[in-house]
Amino acid sequence: MNKHVELVEKWLNDNNSVSLEELRANRDDAYDDTYANHDVAYDAAYAAYDAAYAAYDAAYAAARAARAATYEAAYEAAYWVNKYKELTK
Predict the structure, then answer these.
(1) What is the per-residue pLDDT across 36-88, written as a single tens digit (0 to 9) for each?
(2) Which domain holds residue 42?
(3) Alpha-carbon span 28 to 75, nearest angstrom
(4) In this structure, which long-range contacts are made by residues 69-75, counting pairs with CB atoms below 8 Å and at least 24 apart in sequence?
(5) Which pLDDT value is given to residue 37?
(6) pTM of the entire structure?
(7) What is d(CA 52, CA 44) in angstroms, rounded to the nearest whole number?
(8) For the residues of the chain, what is the DSSP string, one character each?
(9) Within 10 Å of residue 49's Cβ, how many Cβ atoms?
(10) How many domains does the chain have?
(11) Phi and psi (nearest 5°) for 15?
């Protein structure tokens, strides 16, 4: 399993288990890995980045905005985790 997706899943299971800073770093690392790892399928790596990015957005929204925005971003994070899993079967 992709380390970025694992962190997103951890956050999806318990929003308090991962800090906003960890999510930000995960998002940035996933972006770097998307372009650096030529041995990983591009679509799968990009799905992992999208999951990490959406999880960071969700956590940021929770810290700064209404609960409705958090739900939408968390839904998107879950979508990209599932997309990653489909692409790496």
Answers:
(1) 766 657 778 788 888 888 888 888 777 776 566 667 778 888 888 888 888 88
(2) 3-87
(3) 20
(4) 74/12, 74/15
(5) 65
(6) 0.61
(7) 12
(8) --HHHHHHHHHHH-TTSS-HHHHHHHHHHHHHHHHH-TTS-HHHHHHHHHHHHHHHHHHHHHHHS-HHHHHHHHHHHHHHHHHHHHHT-
(9) 25
(10) 1
(11) -60, -25
